Amino acid sequence: xxxSADFLWVAIHIALGVLSLAFLMVTWRVLRGPTLPDRVVGLxxxxxxxxxxxxxxxxxxxxxxxxxxxxxxxxxxxxATVAFARFTLSLQGKIQQQNDEQDERExxxxxxx
Amino acid sequence: MRTLIFRAIAPYLTALMxxxxxxxxxxxxxxxxxxxxxxxxxxxAFALYGIAFGxxxxxxxxxxxxxxxxxxxxxxxxxxxxxxxxxxxPYLTGIWTTAPVFHFDVATIILFDLGVYLVVAGAFxxxxxxxxxxxxx
Lengths: 113, 137
What we know:
The complex is a heterodimer of chains A (113) and B (137). Chain A is built from three helices and no strands. Chain A has 113 residues and is mostly helical. In chain A, helix 2 (36-61) runs antiparallel to helix 3 (65-112). Chain A is elongated. The termini of chain A are far apart. Chain B is mainly alpha-helical and 137 residues long. Chain B has helices at 4-27, 35-53, 55-62, 66-79, 83-87, 108-134; strands at residues 96-98, 105-107. Classes of the chains: A mainly alpha (113), B mainly alpha (137). Chain A binds chain B through residues 65, 68, 71-72, 75-76, 78-79, 82-83, 85-86, 89-90, 93, and chain B through 1, 6, 13, 16-17, 20, 24, 31-33, 37, 41, 44, 47-48, 51, 135-136.
């Protein structure tokens, strides 16, 4: 094995190790995450790490096809994050509305008494 | 969603996703890809556009009603099986021939794949836009 091939082998395995560590840490954040946005950002980070994994495996095996998979995952992952953000916004709106209604009801009750 | 960054980048991302969906569709059948995954990518492109600019704008960008797109695709896929009728082979057999003037190979398979692409893109865009329509902006 030539020096460059050795170097590539070491680099790929270091990259896989670091990515695995990042994957575990982000998974912990997704499971733990105190609020919903924390979990959403964690899922987005998981997608990014998965793209990194796919690219590294692509270099390791030599299949250029993996680049296409990474590209598709990047595009769809962005859509997923946007949809989650949209969901969070509408959820917040609903909670706000409920609070407003409750305040109004309490005010009306106060007037009645 | 009224977000400046998202609204600025959404048209480019939509165009990129549509381009990639066509690329994946045309590469399909012998290599990974094909009508189904291409159609899914196209539908997610329109869903992204719909989230960014609202559902009416996305419907205008699609030109045709999503369900009629899906219907056209189903018709194309069904038609792609008809040439095998004249050859005496089973329905939907892939038939290859060479175009008379331009001398490149054409097959009924590409027609079938384009049909699947339109069916999936239309159906899933219809679902995504209907879901987005119900949520308030």
